[in-house]
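Narrative progress, year one. The postdoctoral researcher (J.K.) led the effort to move from monomer predictions toward full complexes, under supervision of the PI. The following entry was the first complex the group processed end to end, covering 800 residues in total.
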Amino acid sequence: MANHSASQPAHVQHHFVDSDQQFDSAKLGMWVFLVNEILFFGGLFCAYIIFRVWYPELFTQAALELNKVWGGVNTIVLIGSSLTVAMAIRSAQRNELKGLRINLMITIALAFVFLVIKYFEYEHKLHLGIAPGSFWNPTPEVLAVLDHPKANIFFSIYYVMTGIHGLHVIIGIGLMIWLYIRAGKGHFSSEYYTPVEITGLYWHLVDLIWIFLFPLLYLIE
Amino acid sequence: MAVAETKKMTTLQVQRFIPSENPTNTYLTDEKGVWAWMTTVDHKKIGLMYLASVAFFFALAGFLAIALRTELWTPAKTFIEADTYNQLFTLHGAMMVFFVLIPSIPAALGNFIMPMQLGAKDVAFPRLNLASFYIYVIGAVFTFISLYMNGFDTGWTFYTPYSSDSNSAGVIWVTLGVFILGFSSILTGTNFITTIHKLRAPGITWGRLPLNIWALYATSIIQVLATPVLAITILLLSLENIMDIGIFDPALGGDPVLYQHFFWFYSHPAVYIMIVPGFGIISEVITTFSKKTIFGYWAIALSSLAIAFIGFLVWGHHMFTSGQSAVATTVFSFLTFLVGIPTGIKILNWIATLYRGSIEMKTPMLYVFIFLFLFSIGGFTGIMLGALSVDIHLHDTYYVVAHFHYVMMGGTLIALLAGLHYWWPKMTGKMYNETLGKISAVLIFIGFNMTFLPQFVMGAQGMPRRYYNYIDQFQPFHQTSTIGSYILGFAFLLMLYYLLKSLFSGEKAPSNPWNSRGLEWQSTSPPDFHNFDHTPVVINHPYDYHKPMEEFQLGIAISHNGHSDEHQDEIVSDETEKA
């Protein structure tokens, strides 16, 4: 009987028996990695809960400093990008390489929009002296509204949570640019689109974490 | 005829297979040169590189331990200053935990052995495996940089507020180092879980998984679930040092006990990251040298998972005196006792495996007995420390120091040595000197007990841990302990000597020197680059010692058959010839 490994397509790495096994492994590996990510953010959410229980009035006061409108826009932008990344996977499954590239491009663009809005939010706050930790130096107008001795802690949590999330968005953009280039070289087809699939999984998690961050930080009353 | 139960009558033709005794093409000869080693994706070479790094850090941290013990020869200053002493014990603890114990068994021995026991060619993500090694190296570099930044003397636990107040530069570098190191551990765990799920050779069902694999699986789950929490904790601690974010620092409104909760939420399960893979090795070695089927396969396999699960619920027992609520303390104390159950199940099953076995006292088996003895003491004293009123008296004394050395060194390290000696012929293709092996094992046993037994006594009498000075009444205990540490040091040097000697002038190892039934022994010594010539087909249970060896030899599939689930039914062996 023929040696099976000789008849494998080029994308199957030497230590896998077949394409299915490679695909399943990559997918499982990514799911396990996402569990990691959830626990990583889990520590931050835990810190958030504890400080919120201790200083409930601080959290409701401080949340007023955050801009609900732009936060809401960013939520819609990210949910939209989750849709387009899912459509990119769909295109790959259907072997529509042009659709794959267009959908990746839209996803990258939406991720950039998210970061630009986030940048202006940060910029505005830093301008008011609402900075993390030792850089905390708010203007008198801010202090008039936000009169709490531990106010810096809320913003430390805010900056760490959104900062780490932003870092994940940047990594996601890098991954999708890499996918876009590879798609341009014709590396993907309905036979092989593993990297698109697992990057999509990652991107959904980044989106999901924002869906928790937005109400917890912006919408508390 | 070895015919497995038939589910569907698709017969797979299987041929018996005997590995060559004089392999010409092995993983060691396949690619040569330093560059080929540094860029290899072969799990065996990565395992060896980990092993060398772990040995290096063990020597370094062990040397520090001997320096510390020498300082404690007299109550006052013997030869180093108090501040240096504080830095040295911190460095000893941090290195032993993060650079030796955590990667030792999974990343070094596990990397080498796991794919072979699964009949796979490699781990699921070989490049990620190499990356995790380099991440480990980068973490080590950060730690060394911190030493140039005046070091750190916080204890390996980096408790706030001390770690946020004292020498920041050193603490920032070492905590970032530990942060980076965590990723190495996470990637290894992710890789192992995927490999165990997806890359098992045909015929290896979950019920035929070697117990070492079950242990590594439980370990990987802990690595994946606990390490990210350490990562975020350490990151917050670094940010606390860099820009005073006020999460942990009480002066800024933060909570130092929250740091302890976060830290131990990782670091207690981390204790099981260290010890559970050791259990796996013991299970393998004890059956091989008892020539008897393992007693209670499922009990041992599932108790590993039980330990992993309960291990997540007991972190508060490190904080009985830190001001956590009385209710929490009581619950944590009770849960701590529960860990004793699965651990006891394992010990009893190992003892039952020995019963009426044909025990062969080779060096690895000697280490198993040392393990059973020392680890049991470590475990029992752990139960005592978990009892609330006893802990109030004993916490932060040498009793605790002795307890965790009995668990970590008497447990993990001794298991590592058992595994190292057991798999040495497979890894290197050479036999070590059995007599010197036994002498060094006995010396380690004597030296270890001499070092740490007196510490139980003086701890119970009130000698606090981490102290530079002590009152005169403790001097005989300290001196006995110091002499013991010298014996230990000598025994390890002896081991280094005969292991290195075996590499250059050791006898050539046969493919299966211990007559083991394990899959990894059915390949050549040292193995082929792809571990096996063909994808092996596993017909028997890994501990079927009641079957004769020739009955047991592996099948190799004459044709391909898939690993995927829909093909599982086809694995019905019907050998055509006996080799």
